[in-house]
Amino acid sequence: MSRDIARVEAGPSGRPGACPGCGSEPSRRELFARASCALAAALAASGVSVDAARAYPVDLTNPVSEQGAERSYPLPAEDGVSIDQDNEVILVRSANRVYAFALACPHENTALRWRQNDRRFQCPRHESKYQPDGTFTSGRATRNMDRFAIRRDGQRVIVDLAKLWRSDKEKAAWDAAVLTL
């Protein structure tokens, strides 16, 4: 069985991917600028404003410290979604409030996805939908996203992984699991 192997043509510098017309390779900064312009053009062509797309950026994060069941994260400076895959935590800042959610959909424990264009969470398995505050809006789930207990310590958010609140069983604790900035 033979395999077709794609070859990358070498540019004038002799290295793959070199800029063929100018004799030099683009810098990382130039590549990033080009990619940013291409993304903005694609968003504009699709009808999504750049401001709307930036409204809730998604980042992967890790705790800055761990103590027992508590994880400490930097206080988000702006609206956005941060996902800590290792600890299965979603940290959200929205409308001057901060929430910490379990990564799993409460319906069948599938990892939730943030749908940036729609500004909501969605389960890829059965399409349950949730607002940024974790409120269930439609789909097969029967309750809101589960929230972790959360508190502020200076410029950090402390999430207690041992205290996970379900809106249908511990409503008062679920309602209180929010930081107001």
Quick overview of this protein structure:
The protein is an alpha+beta fold and 181 residues long.
Give the helix level as a range of percent.
10-25%
Under the CATH scheme, the architecture of the largest domain is 3-layer Sandwich
Give the number of DSSP strands: 13
Which of globular, elongated, flat, extended, rod-shaped describes the shape? globular
Global Rg: 21 Å
- The average pLDDT value, as a whole number, equals 80
Low-confidence stretches: 1-23, 46-54
Query: Count of helical segments?
Result: 3
Main β-sheet: number of strands, strand sense, barrel status? 5 strands, mixed
CATH superfamily heading of the largest domain? Rieske [2Fe-2S] iron-sulphur domain
Class from helix and strand fractions? alpha+beta
Q: What top-tier CATH class of the largest domain fits best?
A: Mainly Beta
How many separate domains?
A: 2
Distance between the termini: 62 Å
**CATH fold-type name of the largest domain:** Rieske Iron-sulfur Protein
Order of helices and strands: HHEEEEEEEEEEEEHE
Plain-language structure description:
The protein has 2 domains: 7-54, no CATH class; 58-180, Rieske Iron-sulfur Protein (3-layer Sandwich). It has 3 helices and 13 strands, in the order ααββββββββββββαβ. The protein has helices at 28-46, 50-54, 171-176; strands spanning 58-60, 65-67, 70-74, 80-84, 89-94, 97-102, 113-115, 120-122, 129-130, 136-138, 147-153, 156-165, 179-180. The strands form 3 sheets. It has a 5-stranded mixed sheet with strand order 1-4-5-6-13, with no helix packed on it. The protein has a 4-stranded antiparallel sheet with strand order 2-3-12-11. A 4-stranded antiparallel sheet has the order 7-8-9-10, with no helix packed on it. Strand 5 and strand 6 (97-102) form a beta hairpin. The longest helix is centred in the N-terminal third of the chain and has 19 residues, at 28-46. Mean pLDDT is 80; it is low at 1-23 and 46-54.
